[in-house]
Amino acid sequence: MLALASPALLVILLLIVLPVGWLAWQSIYHDGFTLENYRRILSEAIYWRSFSLTFQISLLVTLLALLLGYPIAYAASVVPKGWSVLILALVILPFWTSALVRAYAWLALLQRTGVVNQFLQYLGIIDEPLALVHNTFGTVVATVHILLPFMVLPLYATMQKIPHDLMQAGASLGGSPSHTFWRIFLPLSLPGVLAGTTLVFVLCLGFYITPELLGGGRTVMVSLLVSRNVELYDQWGAASAVGVVLLVSVLVIFLIVGRFIPLDRILGQK
Amino acid sequence: MKTFSLPRIVFVVFCALVLLYLILPVLIIVPMSFSSTRFLTFPPPSLSLRWYQEYIGNAAWMQATRVTFAVAALTVLIATPLGVAAAYAISNSKMRIMRIVHMMLMLPLVVPIIITAVGIFFVYAKVGLVATMSGLVLANVMLGLPYVITSVVAGLQSFDPAQEMVARSLGMNRLRSFFAVTLPQIKASVLTGAIFAFISAMDETVVGLFISGGQYQPLTKRMFTALRDEIDPTIAAISTLMTAASFLLVLIASTRQKKSGP
Fold first, then answer.
1. Largest CB tally within 10 Å, which of A107, B56, B86, B217?
2. B147/B145 Cα distance (integer angstroms)
3. A254 vs B contacts (CB less than 8 Å)
């Protein structure tokens, strides 16, 4: 049986295990062993700022995705089948649209002469176009949009399995709708919340397309730090060290969450 | 519960707005691509096929399109058999090591894409695979494998392995019984996996950004480079076509799955 899996395994070993291993090696070896690259991450402000900005943005994006995604998933799990199919289609179609295409759409929507600014000016709400893009705001708006399906799908998968009888039982015992929601539905949906928030947070930590295209050079998330060290400065060692810290953060999060829910349940949603 | 209570109306309006936020950016590129002006005004002053002509008439865009389709097709041709074999092994083996193998095969989903991209770039630079077709295809096979494996493992879960046992007890060897009995029953999940691997290869951006170059640049790389400089409406036309292709493929995958369902 192992033989059957070996061609796929070989591809994985050569194209992801080896490259990531090489990256880790380069972060500590340059004409001899050195921890210089890691020392720099700890001592130079630009690295610190980037890591802290990345964690802040990821937290914000995750929180927003949860706030927007939970009601959607809830609605999809309680409405009649025809409606839930429609809701899920509206979630899944953007999911299978290229992230690059969606970043482009946001660029067009949010720029100075974009649809949103034109509309607000037309309504007379603003006189001057707002700076909606090439900053952190634009990055967050587009990133939440791109990652929202990763929140809704695991939430829906969990909520769909919550038996409706439980809520009816709660209601028949005199619980108000809000009471049965807070005391019965919400606690039972928490595994989905954990899966969705983990997935969105981790994906956001390493997100590259939106901060690069919509960040306007100011939103230097960790992924940009990696790419700039490679492309602009030819600093492979520094890029590798930043990459290793990012990867370790992601793996630690997965390991911690994996103690509460099986990892394949989180990844199965992708 | 009253049907039109205030909290309920607020809830419905909120959900409608979120769904609008989800779908609107995907749809907005369509009118933009048919606009007659270079500036992104909405609604467009008049309709034209100008940007589609620009796209089709441009040799560089056409070359990039050929690269994208060749890469996506080759990716499916390689990733599908590899993924089906691995999924079969995962589903039929009770060895503990298979769990580890399964987790390793999911690595492309776990490792942040920027790290994968830079790592592959380092390795390719050493072995001379940067800016080659084979390099691009190999990387996309790796990225597509988890989609095929996840889909086929799920398909095999609802398949009764006893059927294959029966075929084998009647004298078929393992390979023949797989092709004659098992494969026809899981073909919807194989097709779904193949389609998702195709879409993943078509949409892949970050790895291609680092490892592709010269005449072997996929569409997404040319689009990304063009986006950094200015907003060219030709990209709206290309985006519309790419989105239409994705929608069509997802539609095929979902109708196929319904047909084969119980």
1. B86
2. 5
3. 110
The C-alpha atoms of residue B197 and residue B75 are separated, in whole angstroms, by 7
Residue A35 touches partner B, C-beta closer than 8 Å: no
- CA-based nearest residue to B75, from B125, B9, B127, B146: B146
Question: A43 to chain B, minimum CA–CA distance in Å?
Answer: 22
**Shortest alpha-carbon distance between residue A5 and chain B (Å):** 4
| Core vs surface per residue B176-196: b (16+ CB within 10 A) or e | ebbeebbeebbebbbbbbbbb
Min Cα separation A265/chain B (Å): 11
Q: Write the pLDDT tens digit of every residue in A90-125.
A: 998 888 888 999 998 998 888 887 788 888 888 888
The residue-averaged pLDDT of B92-116 equals 90
Rounded to two decimals, what is the model's pTM? Answer: 0.90
Spatial separation of the C-alpha atoms in residues A121 and A61, rounded to whole Å: 28
Q: What is the pLDDT of residue A51?
A: 93
> Closest by alpha carbon to A145, among A93, A193, A76?
A93
Q: Which residue of A has its CA nearest to B139?
A: A15
> Rounded to whole angstroms, what are the CA distances from A243 to A15, A236, B3?
16, 10, 53
For B1, other C-beta atoms within 10 Å of its C-beta total 8
pLDDT in tens, A140-186: 999 999 999 999 999 999 998 888 788 778 888 887 878 888 888 88
Which two tokens mark B260?
């084969």
